[in-house]
Amino acid sequence: MTIGVCYFPEHWPREQWESDATNMAEAGIEYVRLAEFSWAVLEPERGHFEFDWLDEAIEVLGAQGLKVVLCTPTATPPKWLVDERPEILQADIDGTPRHFGSRRFYCFNSPAYREETDRIVSRLAERYGDNPHVVGWQTDNEFGCHRTVRCYCEDCSAAFSDWLAEKYDTIETLNERWGTTFWSQRYPSFEAVDPPQPTPADHHPSLLLDYYRFANDSVVDYNRLHANLLREVNDEWFVAHNFMGDFETLDAHAVADDLDLVTWDSYPTGFVQDRREDDPTLDELRAGDPDQVSMNHDLYRGTNDAPFWVMEQQPGDVNWPPTCPQPGDGAMRLWAHHATAHGADAVLYFRWRRCRGGQEQYHAGLRKHDGSADRGYHDASQAAAELDGLDVAHVDAPVALLHDYHDWWAISSQPHAPDFDYWEHLRTYYRALRARGVQVDIVHPETSLEDYALVVAPTLHLMSEERADHLSDYVSDGGHLLLGARTGYKDSYNRLPDARQPGALSNLVGATVDQHESFPASVDLSLMYDGDAYDYRTWSEWLNPDEADVVAEHTTAGVTEAKPAIIRNEARRGTVTYVGVWPEAELANTIVGDALQTAGVTSTDVLPDGLRVAERDGHVWVTNFTSDAVTLDVPQGTPCHVGESKTERNDTVDVDPFGVAVVECRVDDVAVE
Amino acid sequence: MTIGVCYFPEHWPREQWESDATNMAEAGIEYVRLAEFSWAVLEPERGHFEFDWLDEAIEVLGAQGLKVVLCTPTATPPKWLVDERPEILQADIDGTPRHFGSRRFYCFNSPAYREETDRIVSRLAERYGDNPHVVGWQTDNEFGCHRTVRCYCEDCSAAFSDWLAEKYDTIETLNERWGTTFWSQRYPSFEAVDPPQPTPADHHPSLLLDYYRFANDSVVDYNRLHANLLREVNDEWFVAHNFMGDFETLDAHAVADDLDLVTWDSYPTGFVQDRREDDPTLDELRAGDPDQVSMNHDLYRGTNDAPFWVMEQQPGDVNWPPTCPQPGDGAMRLWAHHATAHGADAVLYFRWRRCRGGQEQYHAGLRKHDGSADRGYHDASQAAAELDGLDVAHVDAPVALLHDYHDWWAISSQPHAPDFDYWEHLRTYYRALRARGVQVDIVHPETSLEDYALVVAPTLHLMSEERADHLSDYVSDGGHLLLGARTGYKDSYNRLPDARQPGALSNLVGATVDQHESFPASVDLSLMYDGDAYDYRTWSEWLNPDEADVVAEHTTAGVTEAKPAIIRNEARRGTVTYVGVWPEAELANTIVGDALQTAGVTSTDVLPDGLRVAERDGHVWVTNFTSDAVTLDVPQGTPCHVGESKTERNDTVDVDPFGVAVVECRVDDVAVE
Amino acid sequence: MTIGVCYFPEHWPREQWESDATNMAEAGIEYVRLAEFSWAVLEPERGHFEFDWLDEAIEVLGAQGLKVVLCTPTATPPKWLVDERPEILQADIDGTPRHFGSRRFYCFNSPAYREETDRIVSRLAERYGDNPHVVGWQTDNEFGCHRTVRCYCEDCSAAFSDWLAEKYDTIETLNERWGTTFWSQRYPSFEAVDPPQPTPADHHPSLLLDYYRFANDSVVDYNRLHANLLREVNDEWFVAHNFMGDFETLDAHAVADDLDLVTWDSYPTGFVQDRREDDPTLDELRAGDPDQVSMNHDLYRGTNDAPFWVMEQQPGDVNWPPTCPQPGDGAMRLWAHHATAHGADAVLYFRWRRCRGGQEQYHAGLRKHDGSADRGYHDASQAAAELDGLDVAHVDAPVALLHDYHDWWAISSQPHAPDFDYWEHLRTYYRALRARGVQVDIVHPETSLEDYALVVAPTLHLMSEERADHLSDYVSDGGHLLLGARTGYKDSYNRLPDARQPGALSNLVGATVDQHESFPASVDLSLMYDGDAYDYRTWSEWLNPDEADVVAEHTTAGVTEAKPAIIRNEARRGTVTYVGVWPEAELANTIVGDALQTAGVTSTDVLPDGLRVAERDGHVWVTNFTSDAVTLDVPQGTPCHVGESKTERNDTVDVDPFGVAVVECRVDDVAVE
Ligand SMILES: [Mg+2]
Ligand SMILES: [Mg+2]
Ligand SMILES: [Mg+2]
Ligand SMILES: [Zn+2]
Ligand SMILES: [Zn+2]
Ligand SMILES: [Zn+2]
């Protein structure tokens, strides 16, 4: 469990590098990421390479015992390259090129850019193939950032046609699978299929979904190109990529197949302002929303079922959210512990030092732009010291939350209600699990499920026979399955299934969906569950139980009233619950609490918002994302690794505002006083 | 009075067609619309026609006694045609083409597309010229949907220049009529006049208005092309088009001149969410706003002064509004009755069966996508049974509401207040008339007015001498004329008239407009009328009476206070009232109530919102768009065709939530208990 | 002190010109502006000039003793010219041309358009070189209106490269000054630098700032072209330009260097609706916000330290704001007095008569479109009569408010909080000065400051050593300097300075900025100043005093609490106060009040909103922008030039709603009763 930092020596005078390295070592930093966005300084003109500065920087860091992670610098091709080969630029949906001037303007499908990528990556890899300080690589940077997964250029148009030909073999098959008779949309050939450019009404949902898949696959291919080049040179290097948080358009499951190490970039006070529906509280502006953050930890940990890294950890105030408050005292330390509790093995702060020029001047570093220590430096040093002794094994989660990006893309293109957001809906269930201290693996639906006591699938929207069989096998083996709204609405081509929803899952569920409806926020939506009244939001289904029992009925006014809303089916040796609404938090807590109890999963009572516990390898991290101190009761004599025991009997632990405690016990041993 | 359905046999396996036809016949359906959007299956490649499937579908339906309405399939040209002749595409205002991928992307002025239209329509018409089951045609589908009346392509630029040359003869005349000296906008030739492309400030209002007229005329011409081709083959066929609701950019009066039958597409729970200013109530989400819907019935009935059809009637939940609640129980039946009361002779539900693929998966049909009966099927069957016996004559309305699309276009391009909406303003007066159970013809201002007891003209914005004379003649013959704000502000070229507003009407009105002003919603706007205080909104005029009497003075604070707001002129043998504000509902009810009384029009007391009565040929339809049951008092012994008499004396009638009653009496015989 | 009008004789029949001229003379009008937007009538086809109408119009006006100001008609090139040389059109950021159809669509950098400009301006100037009635010129009209300062066409791209080469000499220097190593943005040549076209993320802040400077300089150059041509012909003419209010993108300080007379266009009830953060009150809808208006008076007066003109004064209702209420009775007179009090020597109403055709039909004139007198005519006549006797010297302001457009542009491209608006922030301090009746010169930071008792600099964001020395000299000479938030954050290349903020100013301030943060409006932000609690908004800095004293500490919750918020440094022979927040009005009043007291500036108590006093040359104008009458106490016997003395002792003066009084005394002699 360790700490690192992202460093740009090329931004600073050569004479400062030694003191930077010394200061890093003193903070307990182990890893240093280098060379991101460095193409223009590595190759200032075509074929003229300048590696000396990088050689030297690695040497200076290595001399302090620091380990180096290098980046392929492809996120920012130099201007000379763009001017020479302008065909590498992406195009917006209306054909406007995405020009030079920031980053990520290159097209993943550009043959020219793949050629250039091969050239620079090979050259770099060869240069450092034997370097003892270089331990691994990050490919490019944040694939897809700034809405760049999807491109509408000529190269993409041609590649899309090829991708479709590969998938469907004949154009007749495509026409049949998509259902192109609707609105006379039959295609005479694969060449005739274009990316979804501006057209008067909505595009065909099957075309949209395949375009989103194709765009995703283009990134996967492009990443694989990097991975292959690097591994060819030195197969002991790890190959990593740094993903983003709450990010829709790129399928991390698919990219991860080509990675040794999955990492992501965590900016809690930014995310809470622009990737979440609710307005942030002041505490959230100071430290973020722990469930929003850990949902990404658990997602990326789940991609390869392995410890992950935070490749970029927020170091202080950041520039890109709407507002930029200062994090609470200790928040930068808190985030490192929180990540570790959820399975991170290393947390690298972005970045060493605030930059004087360019787009990120308003983004803090561990050091101020004048070189002095900033608030994050002290937090990072403390976290490094505390984590140094804690070597814990991989997280072992009892619950799986099923998530497929393709479902997200399908729902996004047909939300059917302005506020139906696939990810917010998933988060409703995730929060209810985390509120009870349960560790959750967020995994692809086709992952092996046998080790999970409970499987929660908020929206398996696109359902195939194979996927239905996989879930059915799980329940047959005694598993407990909790399904949410809009599950099984479509087949994998984004058409309606032959039969009623949930299509191939109907048998297992023991019920079908009779009707669905959506509402504006102004309408009161409610149901009665187990004799108690609860609210739900946005989405309502009328269920038609066959073998299943009705466990909740709608109380929403009018024709909705008295229709079955939630059903439960004691199927095979397990159970299936189907929730035909988007539950508000209280209802989610109840449904999930009942499911955990049925499945026999150890959990806590519902914890207060902002206070979260997570167990990893016999250690429980108590992370306090609020400005109020808390005291916890723990079993007498509980060892306390981080935090302070209040009494001599070691049966309480104090946690500061924005503080953390690490105690050696089970998660259900911990109680808020 | 009958029922029909829109059917797409090409979406479903051949073997299901017979059972579909049987189920239609069992429901009492008489008309089936076919072949809309079918070009790609009729002509899968150039010159290769496949009519067999359509022949067979007509035969299967005809065998059940069903009558077929065919569509010209031009709303969706096939991809092979678009790729062969890409010049047919429309262009957005900034030049971006409107691509293939949905519908309505072709330009009405494209010579290439007119050639292709001629080819497919002739071919189809000839194929079915003698078919005994085919009774008529729909041209294309919803001309102008998805903002496509106005195109900015090269073909349109050339056609606009020709249209202007035809209208103005010399460019000097155009420059003079428009007033192009302003901002140095004089044109050297007709060729030099371009469509209104992006420019730093607003475009010239006279150019805008003529461009909107030109774009409208392009659709009129294009529709005439269809009508002529069809009539050439079989002049016993009716030619119809299906218009949209609350639709601004296409002049239904002008298109209707080339039609035998006017039809429109009615989606009450959609319209109430996106074509109206106020947020919908839950009842409105379940059944729509009856006045919003019937205003379109009355508009389309008024175009040719003849019974109309609803060519597409909402069958259940729909996909395109922001949210998609389930209609109330019975709502689909209610809508058919409501349309009939307002003059519909047939109501066709859209569509037979929910589609598995394509853009409208979230749009219900009378049957579910698995083929089983959906909620709408039962409602439609009941409506068919109830309407079967009711053969009523054309609606005879005592009141005319004058409406000219050109006024709408002129106001839209210079609203002068963010919330001044021509159609909402018209609706204010329409609602006040409907709240008293009065039937209203919405007609063009130059229609013959002699049969109307009262003429209401909320905004005759563009005023010519001819139009003023026409109104003056009406009043001279004893007519009663109620005029609203912004009347007579411009001449027909969208210039200010020589004299003050209301220009050519000033004599008749006996007053002029001294000043006008507009306000944000935050300012309280009020006046005193007949000793009572009332609110108005958005728009205020200071009137300067000459011969007229002041009947209301402003009480709005500041310089507006005490200025005349409404005047009345006892002119010739009739009366003219001019309302210099946009009244709120209560004021509109009072003004309209007084006008009805002056004109001696039979009416009810003001009915509650959502409950409406309408008389057609001695039958009164009571339509309940609310979730509360109501009981009506009627004269003893009133025959009740639909609905239930509560007492033996037949002097009350019960109406269910979202229910309907049809009783044989006069509209003022009915009273809410 | 005089009155004028803008006149378009070419819009009206020749036979009306004499009566127009007579009516002008009767109103006491002295100046008439002519020929704006007249190119198409002056040169209806290339090389065919028609000057006769203008000769005649000048003659008719001159015969009534009116003085003529002519305009170069370049804001609206004729259509024949645009069609002949379409390369003169501007381009939007995405490349879309800005077409003919309104105005201001030409590019300032187009060589073709500069050639055409030379041609028409020379020809016009020569025609009227000896005309005795023509006293001066307005260049073009409202440079930059409709967002046209910044253009993205090919000509601009080339000119930008040249401008950079001129500024930086070598591309290495540019790369170093900007800091282009960030995100691999190094440029290989000046030719390679493009305007900031669409790119996935933000553009580089140094490129943006230089592009904004370049675009501004392009307008400055283009204006100079006009000025030179005119002066060559007749160097007794004044050369003026009419600027706009609250206008960001054009540096009036820079343009003014080439002008003899600075003028601007004042539309109080429009500005209050769309160039201010708060929603307007009804009084503001009737008369505007006096501080918003006078801030522009003081800005334009300050550019050349000379009396200015209002070249266009709102005459009644106007067409372009969201809503168009009628101004209060007398408001048009009030505005003329208010302008005079702030240093105007002439106020010209826009325009003589409402226009029948074109984009400004809904814009009043002094005469209605039918030629009769409108409300503004009476107000203008009264103002002319009242001002006729009042010949007052230039305004002598004791306080300077420092403002640099480059700071505005830098902050706008990195606001760092959605509601951080440079101009609104400046206005906070300006309001506090005006609320105490203090005259303020708004001047460029490098203006000579020695005559000012107090200098207020709300945000000197870009700080150079030279600028710091200039301020330091001022304080060393005993000056009092009040600095606001975000001062000294950047160097003049928009990079962070080497040292901490406020960079080169740190020594003078005696403190540095430890941290900054921004917040959404939902968070309560507060501080304790001199024992009292106050609110602030949006922006917070934590100050780190060195020699300075802490005079306010944050009380905002969390980590912000107890950090120093405002400091004061008794430096050299003067004082420096640094305010590390954006104060709310009450805090601004207190800080500014204390600063005025320290500096010994004469002022009033805080006046009510909407009531303002201003002293010019021994005369105090009391201007009442509210609908409530007020009575003022003045020293016994005070001469009252305008307004009414209530008592025989001449010790009170009544001011009507929207009224004005002019009394001969000092500003602190006046008190609201
Ligand atoms: Mg293609
Ligand atoms: Mg043309
Ligand atoms: Mg260039
Ligand atoms: Zn591409
Ligand atoms: Zn067109
Ligand atoms: Zn340009």
Automatic annotation (TrEMBL), chains A, B, C:
<dbReference type="InterPro" id="IPR029062">
    <property type="entry name" value="Class_I_gatase-like"/>
</dbReference>
<dbReference type="InterPro" id="IPR013529">
    <property type="entry name" value="Glyco_hydro_42_N"/>
</dbReference>
<dbReference type="Pfam" id="PF02449">
    <property type="entry name" value="Glyco_hydro_42"/>
</dbReference>
<feature type="domain" description="Beta-galactosidase trimerisation">
    <location>
        <begin position="397"/>
        <end position="601"/>
    </location>
</feature>
<comment type="similarity">
    <text>Belongs to the glycosyl hydrolase 42 family.</text>
</comment>
<dbReference type="InterPro" id="IPR003476">
    <property type="entry name" value="Glyco_hydro_42"/>
</dbReference>
<dbReference type="Pfam" id="PF08532">
    <property type="entry name" value="Glyco_hydro_42M"/>
</dbReference>
<dbReference type="InterPro" id="IPR017853">
    <property type="entry name" value="GH"/>
</dbReference>
<dbReference type="GO" id="GO:0046872">
    <property type="term" value="F:metal ion binding"/>
</dbReference>
<dbReference type="InterPro" id="IPR013780">
    <property type="entry name" value="Glyco_hydro_b"/>
</dbReference>
<keyword id="KW-0862">Zinc</keyword>
<protein>
    <recommendedName>
        <fullName>beta-galactosidase</fullName>
        <ecNumber>3.2.1.23</ecNumber>
    </recommendedName>
</protein>
<keyword id="KW-0378">Hydrolase</keyword>
<dbReference type="GO" id="GO:0004565">
    <property type="term" value="F:beta-galactosidase activity"/>
</dbReference>
<dbReference type="GO" id="GO:0009341">
    <property type="term" value="C:beta-galactosidase complex"/>
</dbReference>
<feature type="domain" description="Glycoside hydrolase family 42 N-terminal">
    <location>
        <begin position="6"/>
        <end position="388"/>
    </location>
</feature>
<keyword id="KW-0326">Glycosidase</keyword>
<dbReference type="InterPro" id="IPR013738">
    <property type="entry name" value="Beta_galactosidase_Trimer"/>
</dbReference>
<keyword id="KW-0479">Metal-binding</keyword>
<dbReference type="GO" id="GO:0005975">
    <property type="term" value="P:carbohydrate metabolic process"/>
</dbReference>
